[in-house]
Amino acid sequence: MSQKSVGAFYGVGVGPGDPELITRKAERILRAVDWIFLPSGRRSGNSFVRRIVEPLGLPEGKFRPVFLCMSRDRADDSNAYSRAASEIVAELRQGKSVAWITEGDPLFYSTFLHVNEALRPYPEVRVEIIPGVTSTSAAAARVGLPVARLDERVAVVPAAYGMRRLPALLDEFATVFLLKVHAVFDELLAVLASVRGPIRTVYLEQVGTPAERVVTDLESLRGQELPYFSLVILRTEKQE
Amino acid sequence: MSQKSVGAFYGVGVGPGDPELITRKAERILRAVDWIFLPSGRRSGNSFVRRIVEPLGLPEGKFRPVFLCMSRDRADDSNAYSRAASEIVAELRQGKSVAWITEGDPLFYSTFLHVNEALRPYPEVRVEIIPGVTSTSAAAARVGLPVARLDERVAVVPAAYGMRRLPALLDEFATVFLLKVHAVFDELLAVLASVRGPIRTVYLEQVGTPAERVVTDLESLRGQELPYFSLVILRTEKQE
Questions:
Q1: ipTM
Q2: Measuring CA to CA, which of A170, B29, B45, B170 is 20 to 30 A from B7?
Q3: A163 touches B at CB < 8 Å
């Protein structure tokens, strides 16, 4: 082993989509590091997270795309993360600094969690995580809906998992964020029709991007094909 | 009425405490606006949120502190917010732009919610909300604990409200953030002792500030006086 010290590894959240919602810390670190690894779709070779940092004008040669399938079968992705982890470690051992960038926050439904997992066999790697603005915060801000007041509770629930339990969640939580609603949207409409009491509902997709869409009449979306990056905010009005 | 257009009102989240976790958008708006209103404690005349934006070097004369009691009796604060709202509206009507800054995110347990409420009688006010990094994201990042992977659920629960229901929450949610744990800490220890299964627990206060404190052995805090800005992350390990 050489005496050269191992470089720093950063998990950097770049926020929900609007490049201005990148933090000052994320910007500083992305300018300072030697390499920026990022997840990339197979087809485009360019990714959503890459577009978020575009306005920072970082040198093109600094980016190292890691191709992921993002399919239901996670085995391919698991291999991709392991390969990325060894590439990252190789750079760190040469004293280079490396950032992995993710949309939103690195610990909140992000690819960073898988990279971090893949880095476990390398205990010498020091990881610093830079939190980011989440898509849930950005969605609520876009429509001005309170998330939590005083002693209120908040739940974040991937929709596919939570439809059956939704009425019970709405009894206990003032705000429920349903993520990835695209696959269960008509089922969601049925559950909402059966729930008593006033509930404010808003559907949002790709908040803070040019493709942003905000719909308050959920019925109007019945039967439509909805994208993956979609969420619904459910806000009970009991305590207001 | 004059023809002068009404100025813009911004609810600006400045993040959890580390000035570098201010977003580029928050920084731009705070530099651009004519006035920055902010909550301020009666004793110090200076506030936590004021210290977060200190490194931006904004002109001192731009700040307009609003004195709040932050007591259990909300009547005094309600009057303070109403007074602040009319001061804000008076400025906006003169075409001035105004920001209200809050720690963390404006819609997540923040003073902005009360100001926004107090502005309801003034429908001419256009409000833009700038989301910020939350204390929960910052706490998880500080200790590298995953918040949500794939289809996991997340709950945010003010501790005083949720102790009795905590075991049930831990069955349903992969990560539970307990806020304001100072008042119920010994009760929390008792509940945790009764819960089965591996749960990672971390106590954090004032994350990202010089007064930051991180404790993984919760037992060691028994009987201690804890501050208001404290939280506990509970992470079930079932799905890992």
A1: 0.93
A2: B45
A3: no
**H or E element, residue B203:** strand B199-205
* Model pLDDT for residues A88-142, shown as the tens digit of each residue: 999 999 999 999 999 999 999 999 999 999 999 999 999 999 999 999 999 999 9
CB proximity list for A4: less than 8 A, separation 6 or greater: A93, A94, A95
Chain A's closest residue to B156, CA to CA, is A154
Please give the pLDDT value at position B208.
Answer: 85
| Nearest beta carbon to residue A108 from set B137, B151, B161 | B137
A148-200 pLDDT, tens digit each: 998 899 999 998 876 889 999 999 999 999 999 988 999 999 999 998 778 99
Domains of chain B as residue ranges with CATH: 9-130 (3.40.1010.10), 135-236 (3.30.950.10)
The reported pLDDT for the residue numbered B40 is 84
How big is chain B, counted in residues?
240
Measured between CA atoms, the residue of chain B closest to residue A135 is B131
CA distances from B71 to A197, B42, B77, B81, B206 (A): 31, 11, 8, 14, 20
The answer to whether the CB of B96 falls within 8 A of the CB of B62 is no
Q: Alpha carbon of B186 to those of A135, B201, B235: distances in Å?
A: 35, 14, 19
Give the residues across from B202 on adjacent strands. Answer: B233
Mean pLDDT of chain B: 90
The tokens for B112 are 């902005």
Chain A residues with CB under 8 Å of B155 CB are 153-156, 173
Task: Please state, rounded to an integer, the average pLDDT across all residues of chain A.
Answer: 90
Given a cut of 60, whether residue B234 has pLDDT beyond it is: yes
To the nearest whole Å, the CA of B65 is away from the closest chain A CA by 21
Percent of chain A with pLDDT over 90: 74
CB-closest option in A130, A137, A145 to B141: A130
